[in-house]
Automatic annotation (TrEMBL):
Topological category with respect to the lipid bilayer: Multi-pass membrane protein
Pfam families according to UniProt: FtsX, MacB_PCD
Domain ABC3 transporter permease C-terminal, residue spans: 291-412
Source superkingdom: Bacteria
Name of the molecule in the record: Putative ABC transport system permease protein
Domain spans labelled MacB-like periplasmic core: 21-248
Localisation per UniProt entry: Cell membrane
Regions crossing the membrane: 21-41, 287-312, 341-362, 382-402
Membership in a protein family: Belongs to the ABC-4 integral membrane protein family.
Length: 419
């Protein structure tokens, strides 16, 4: 029940020594500010690092062939081999949990020998032979035209999609690439699309200097036959690709006559596993943020508790008079608890507001200055704010509990005798 007299008494008690009240409140203010800022900065790091995954299908893995490290069935150690298109079909049939199985072959490479010509201009670019679904596994923004299609695959069309780095290297400023031809290792390909890299797991500059052509056209033009040098595998959301990896590798080793215990023959990069490690790391950092912030906040709560003990001692005679006039122990205790709770919540709310202003300022600076590597959009969710409020309420009650108990243990007669 609201009592105006009670609130006036509480405000009078807090204003009795304003400097002491300010110093006491500052401990809670600083503790809750540190807690919120630590969590916001942790989220900023999480957002920045996970942004590097971009629109990658994170439930994916990439596999390629390497040299064998063990002899097997009469075949020597150090043997090189290739996947085949029939291996792709086997994976699709034997593992219905796989959403995409994208084979790839590669030619040349950025910073390698000049392999692409247009008129008088030449350049060294990476050329990938891919299937249409690969664009669903790796992020890229089509600026003009389109990506390769299954119609291109079936008809062995000599078309290509080029990155912004290729456009810059082979075309004049303002020149439109669509419908033009470039010569890759002596074979003409028509440009049907251009793309830019939105996010990349590798070198963004190298990815921008990449050319995509239909897988079948690539094999026909450059004599790769049915060889497959590289595969991207993506599982459906209900299945973790990491759990399928051992069976997939076992199947491929069996088909390519590789020793079952040869772990070096097939290279792989598990994007799902890497993404899980990143999330796990930042979950731990979040817990560390809560722990450190709670410790700082605890020092402020201890300060409030100590000050409330001093306040109770200063008001001992007043408490004795109130007890003599009929005030119950609970009435005395509730007033002390309310004073502690109000001081804690007010200083805590100011701390949350200050932290929110700092977070807004950080985001404003990031928006003005442009993206920062591995850091983006520092923020906290409303659940964190509600958690902070809950911590404040509990802390305020705990801070006032010991002083409140101390105030009610003293007998009225003894309290009136104290000078």
């Amino acid at each position: 029940m609201f009592s105006r007299d009670r609130w006036e008494e509480i405000l009078e008690a807090l204003n009795a020594n304003k400097f002491r009240t300010f110093l006491t409140a500052f401990g809670v203010f600083w503790g809750i500010t540190i807690l919120v800022l630590l969590l916001a900065l942790t989220n900023g790091l999480r957002n920045g690092v996970t942004a590097d995954f971009g629109n990658f299908a994170t439930n994916s893995m990439f596999i390629w062939t390497q040299q064998t490290s063990k002899p097997y069935k009469g075949l020597p150690k150090g043997r090189r081999f290739n996947f085949k298109l029939e291996d792709v079909a086997t994976l699709k049939n034997d593992f219905p949990q796989l959403k995409y199985v994208s084979p790839r072959n590669q030619l040349g490479g950025y910073s390698g020998a000049n392999n692409v010509v247009r008129g008088t201009k030449t350049g060294a670019f990476q050329v990938n032979g891919d299937y249409p679904e690969f664009i669903k596994q790796q992020p890229m923004d089509i600026i003009q035209g389109r990506f390769v299609s299954y119609s291109d695959i079936k008809s062995n069309r000599k078309v290509c999609v080029i990155g912004t780095g290729v456009v810059k290297g082979l075309y004049d400023k303002g020149e439109r690439p669509l419908g033009t031809y470039i010569k890759i290792n002596g074979v003409n390909f028509m440009v049907v699309g251009t793309f830019k890299v939105s996010n990349s797991q590798g070198d963004k500059e190298e990815d921008a200097n990449t050319i995509f052509v239909p897988f079948t056209s690539f094999g026909q033009a450059f004599n790769f036959a049915d060889n497959v040098g590289w595969m991207a595998l993506t599982a459906y959301d209900g299945t973790n690709i990491t759990t399928l990896k051992p069976q997939i590798l076992e199947t491929l080793k069996s088909r390519r006559t590789v020793h079952p215990e040869d772990d070096r023959a097939i290279g792989n990069f598990d994007l799902s596993e890497a993404f899980g490690r990143v999330n796990g790391l930042f979950s731990i950092l979040g817990l560390v943020g809560y722990f450190v912030g709670a410790l700082v906040l605890m020092s402020g709560i201890i300060g409030i508790s100590n000050i409330m003990l001093i306040v109770v001692k200063e008001r001992t005679k007043e408490i004795g008079v109130r007890r003599a006039l009929g005030a119950s122990p609970w009435m005395i205790k509730s007033q002390i608890l309310q004073e502690s709770l109000i001081l804690t919540i007010l200083s805590g709310m100011v701390g949350i507001s200050f932290a929110a202003a700092v977070i807004w300022g950080l985001n404003y600076v990031l928006d003005m200055s442009g993206p920062v590597e591995n850091f983006a959009n520092p923020s906290v969710s409303m659940s964190v704010v509600f958690t902070a409020l809950f911590i404040l309420v509990v802390s305020g009650l705990l801070a006032g509990l010991i002083p409140a108990n101390s105030a009610t243990k003293m007998k009225p007669v003894d309290a009136l005798r104290i000078e």
